[in-house]
Amino acid sequence: MAVVAGTLLLLVTACGGGGQADGDKGGAAGKDGAGQVATGPSQAVVTVTPKDGAEAVETSGVLKVAAENGTLTTVEVTDSKGTPVEGKLSADATGWQPVRHLAAGTRYKVHAVAKDADGRESAKDTTFTTLVPKNTFLGHYTPEDGSTVGVGMPVSINFTRGITNPEAVEKAIKVTAVPAVPIEGHWFGNDRLDFRPEKYWAAGTKVTVRLDLDGVEGRPGVYGKQAKTVTFTVGRSQVSTVDASEKTMKVVRDGKLIKTIPITAGAPSTTTYNGQMVISEKYKVTRMNGATVGFGGEYDIKDVPHAMRLSSSGTFVHGNYWASAGTFGSANVSHGCVGLRDVRGAYDGSMPAAWFYDNSLIGDVVVVKNSKDKQIQPDNGLNGWNMSWAEWTK
Q: Can you tell me the distance from the alpha carbon of 277 to that of 368, in angstroms, rounded to the nearest whole number?
């Protein structure tokens, strides 16, 4: 119908100039008799791969639109909901490809138009359906959608299957911020991808994470199944510095020291890691069993108050009700955690541990210095800040 309509339009145009006949040349025909108005079918041919009606089509590398004996003037690809697929036209306008992978198990419609040298158009309309994967993977992300976090909070995604095509997976995840700041991803092994800026987030930053994993082949025959957008807000800036030698913790909020808290850090035989650590979990009361972190039966405390996780390996800043009040600020006696004075049951809001718990966000930074231990590994918790920007981005 498009070809017929185009032909009729050309005929009407030729007749509308006053009945030029017998070789009489008007403006539409050009100078010296060259470029006669063509009334035949277009010489342009549109080809679409995959073929019309194809099923179980791969989500990447298959969809292509091309024009022979002409150039593409229109390429529209939409899914069953009418959502357009973004694509890129070649420099000579004879080829088109999507810029990203397609979703799995989805029916797509293609409408493409090409024009030949005489301006005549040829159209092609096809449909195809992408494959339904037998094996899939998910990305478990932190922080939670809609949360307010501290300035040290990275975006951390743990995949349910090991990824062997990290470039495709990382390309399908976009992290942006307002105000804008460069954000880069870093892989820890083949199943964890973290994103962060060079320095801590600015207070008040709005962060958006787009997971466009549906249809991404993360490893041979294993495809992502997520299409989700997550947003979170960075709250006020709070960075607390633990000096293991001085046995104090200085809490700095928005650049101002607001509290100095006496602490007890790791004993000489069980020292506390140095480095920048991010609070990843908060528990008003939790159980701590030494057997779960390599200390055998040395302790099993069923009601540790005001506990905030700093590492995957078991480092916490938490309340301590079993040590004497004189311990805090004068002796390091813990198994590697940072202890603050507290009461059993976590009911007394006047205790230092309760104050710190109530005034801390997941994503706040706790820096430990002057401990006789090594620096914490960047993948031990959400602690990628212990890598330089050069290391992070290489």
A: 8
Looking at the structure, tell me whether residues 192 and 158 fall in a common domain: yes
pLDDT above 70 coverage of the chain, percent: 88
Q: Which residue range forms the structural domain that includes residue 310?
A: 238-385
Give residue 99's region: left, alpha or beta (phi > 0; psi -120 to 50). Answer: alpha
**Which residue in 186, 306, 335, 337 is the catalytic one?**
337
SS3 235: coil
Structural domain includes residue 175: yes
Is the per-residue pLDDT at 308 higher than 50?
Answer: yes
Give the CATH number, domain containing residue 45: 2.60.40.3780
Is 122:44 a contact under the CB 8 Å cutoff? yes
CA distances from 218 to 6, 134, 156, 215, 225 (A): 46, 13, 17, 9, 11
Q: Give the tens place of pLDDT for each residue, 18-45.
A: 333 333 333 333 334 444 556 789 999 9
pLDDT at residue 106, as a whole number:
97
**Same-domain pairing of 272 and 314:** yes
Same domain, 223 and 252: no
Contact criterion met (CB below 8 Å) for 112 and 200: no
pLDDT of residue 29: 37
Q: What tokens appear for 138 in the block?
A: 């998910």
Residue 91 has a pLDDT of: 98
Q: Which helix (H) or strand (E) holds 355?
A: helix 352-358
The answer to whether 92 touches 119, Cβ cutoff 8 Å, is no
Is-catalytic flag, 318? Answer: yes
Burial class of residue 192, CB neighbours in 10 A (0-12, 13-18, 19+): middle
Q: Which residue is catalytic, options 101, 186, 306, 318? A: 318
Taking only Cα atoms into account, the Rg of the chain, rounded to an integer number of angstroms, comes to: 32
8 Å CB contact between 290 and 299: yes
Residue 81's Cβ-side half-sphere holds a number of Cα atoms within 13 Å equal to 4
Q: What are the phi and psi torsion angles at 166 (to 5°)?
A: -65, -30
Residue 291 has what pLDDT? Answer: 65
